[in-house]
Design brief:
The complex is a heterodimer of chains A (341) and B (341). Chain A is of the alpha/beta class. Chain A has 2 domains: 3-94 and 174-329, 3-Layer(aba) Sandwich (Rossmann fold); 106-173, no CATH class. Chain A contains 12 helices and 12 strands. Chain A has helices spanning 55-62, 85-92, 112-123, 128-141, 158-170, 188-205, 216-222, 240-245, 250-257, 264-270, 300-304, 323-329; strands spanning 3-18, 24-40, 44-48, 70-75, 78-79, 95-98, 176-180, 208-212, 225-230, 233-239, 310-311, 317-318. Chain A has an 8-stranded mixed beta sheet with strand order 6-7-8-3-9-10-12-11, with helices on both faces. Chain B folds into 2 domains: 5-105 and 187-204 and 215-274 and 283-295, 3-Layer(aba) Sandwich (Rossmann fold); 119-185, no CATH class. The interface between A and B is large, with 47 and 46 residues. The structure holds adenosine-5'-triphosphate, adenosine-5'-diphosphate, iron/sulfur cluster (2 copies) and magnesium ion (2 copies). One iron/sulfur cluster binds next to loops of chain B. Adenosine-5'-triphosphate is lined by residues 27, 29, 34, 36, 54, 56-62, 72, 75-76, 227, 292 of chain B.
Chain lengths: 341, 341
Amino acid sequence: MSIILQIKDLKKYFPITKGVILKKTLGYVKAVDGVSFSIERGETFGLVGESGSGKSTIGRLIVGLLQPTSGSIFFDKVDLTKINKKEFQNIRRRMSMIFQDPFTSLDPRKNVMQIIAEPLIIHTDMERKKREEIVYQLLERVGLRQEDAFKYPHQFSGGQRQRIAIARALTLSPDLIIADEAVSALDVSVQAKIINILMSLQKDLNLTYLFIAHDLSVVCHISHKVGVMYLGKLVEVGSKSAIFQDPLHPYTQALLEAVPVPDPNIMVAKGLMVLKGEIPSPINPPSGCRFHPRCPYATKRCTEEEPTLIDNGENHLAACHYTDEIKSKRKIIKQPLKDSA
Amino acid sequence: MTLDLEYSEKGMQHNHLLEIVDLKTYFFTKRGAVKAVDGISFTIDAGDVFGLVGESGCGKSVTALSILRLVPDPPGKIVSGQVIFEGEDLLQKSEEEMRSIRGAKISMIFQDPLTSLDPIVRVGEQIVEAIRTHTNMNPQKAWEKAVKILTEVGIPDAEIRAKQYPFQLSGGMRQRVMIAIALVTEPRLLIADEPTTNLDVTIQAQILTLLKEIKAKTQTSILFITHNLGIVAWLCNKLAVMYAGKIVEYGATKSVFSNPLHPYTTLLLKAVPRLDIKKEMLESIEGDVPDLVNPPSGCRFHPRCPYAKKICSIIQPPMIEVEEGHYASCLIYDKEKWRSV
Ligand SMILES: Nc1ncnc2c1ncn2[C@@H]1O[C@H](COP(=O)(O)OP(=O)(O)OP(=O)(O)O)[C@@H](O)[C@H]1O
Ligand SMILES: Nc1ncnc2c1ncn2[C@@H]1O[C@H](COP(=O)(O)OP(=O)(O)O)[C@@H](O)[C@H]1O
Ligand code: SF4
Ligand code: SF4
Ligand SMILES: [Mg+2]
Ligand SMILES: [Mg+2]
């Protein structure tokens, strides 16, 4: 398999400024703080983490909606941070984005035909007839009817609008689709349908997805590989089964155990793991391991020394000083390790 | 932990805390009457945590507002039915009598605490206000009580926090403040409308755990509104599933999850992606949630139901007790009618 997207030590710091004319920088929101991962062609890379952890910022950096503070983004081996505008535009066409809110992401004054055909009009000189044909095909792919082409967004339900957004994202036959909370606003029954559509499109068109979501169950279902973010850092990355069956990082473990599953018997046995504390601010993140104020295993070392992502075999990486110890102690969770802070 | 079903079934059999009988609440709009709640009945007993689940727009919040007589009028109106609380029909009460019940015997918390907290009043003062609306406790005592309850709902440094404004608190803490306000009067019933939907999963687990502790420690029963089946499985001992303004299934949590009766419930459970079970494809429900101005005739689920027969579009299925205490409104369980066609 070949790597289609690789990001290396990517950083995005948003300055916090004061004053209107003479802007004074008071500090930075370290929204993305040194993140690296790669995505193989034809796979889905799920990016999970709680709100404010930097997921959307990564998506926006990749498609050029934001400029990185530092780091590189390789798309098909080309570093997007090193090329000129025109070169970027050419590559940008091979990526598209789907957002959470189907209500605001579609232009209410345009009908579905215009919405879906727009990228073809901007980027190609395809004749009208051919364009319409493509739109009809796309509508069929996402389970809408030909006659829907002449309706307007407000005439559709949330799920249908998300299908329109998907069809539009497919117009230029992209290689990579970045889906940012694309199913988060949908009801369960509708969400299932959209997930199924995304998965079958991937098979048929060999699409690659960067699937950003906070819902772990959805990410678990759709992804091949998963990255877990906490406060601007990737704390764990690995195959779906590695992350969901054998999580190494205490934060990943806590996240998984905080999700209630729809089965009372399991819930009685498993309970809900409660992680203490709040999500700290990315303006002044905690020293050492950013997770230490909430981590049940934290030691003094954790407050001083920042852990790096270390490969634990089979490309399963975790950023924690005590991965091995925790692995052996997993059964007696919540018991602090010796050398406790 | 399992909730004690026995307790609620025994002593209170004929004396429910809350009994809703054939409640109908419509919104009279230009498009016609939106039948948001259209003839629902259920009961909540002392000690219950009752889950009301369903997808967006099915009438959950309107049910809650109807109980408290807070339906915006116009355009809304409680058209008929009874809301019997501690033996008395709230629909017969004067607005003044309702004011002494709201926030005292029945309290409510919402999805977004920011909209229900006063932005310019310190949170401690807001609790004091809640206390002093319903009792004549002196301000000093009330303030002490406010600080105490903030500690009880898990706010660290409650004395300092009590003097802060809502915007100075995180989302999770604001929800704790809402819970403190709701509980400070020791209500018999707490209505919680999606109180964790906007929260991150680790914070959600904290709030849910708090609610469970409250339930164990106090006499307060809870009506918990959510679209998250996992939460119901963990928190509630009874539940009702709503679809398009009606309750389609009703029973003890364990029975409903282990033996879902209504096709909608069955499909919904299959549509949820799960962390603990690998599903190749998610079951999705065809079509969309119906328009409540012109709901489908007969069984409202018939246009989307894979088992529907002609009779389903003609007869409105009644609630049928299929196993003890477990009801479904589906004609499949009306053996005679079902076989006759
Ligand atoms: N003020 C109003 N005017 C007109 N229609 C309303 C009003 N409030 C609610 N409705 C309608 O009543 C129906 C039920 O709404 P309700 O808010 O109870 O849904 P819900 O089950 O709480 O959904 P959600 O999960 O999205 O919160 C919907 O069709 C809604 O559009
Ligand atoms: N344009 C911006 N200006 C300043 N701060 C921002 C901006 N965009 C995002 N942030 C901040 O960066 C952090 C990460 O945000 P985001 O990537 O949206 O998180 P997520 O998608 O994981 O919820 C947050 O603290 C957010 O407030
Ligand atoms: S490095 Fe320390 S604080 Fe961070 S996750 Fe590992 S044990 Fe916890
Ligand atoms: S009554 Fe008919 S349409 Fe309604 S749920 Fe039962 S089988 Fe389906
Ligand atoms: Mg985001
Ligand atoms: Mg609601």
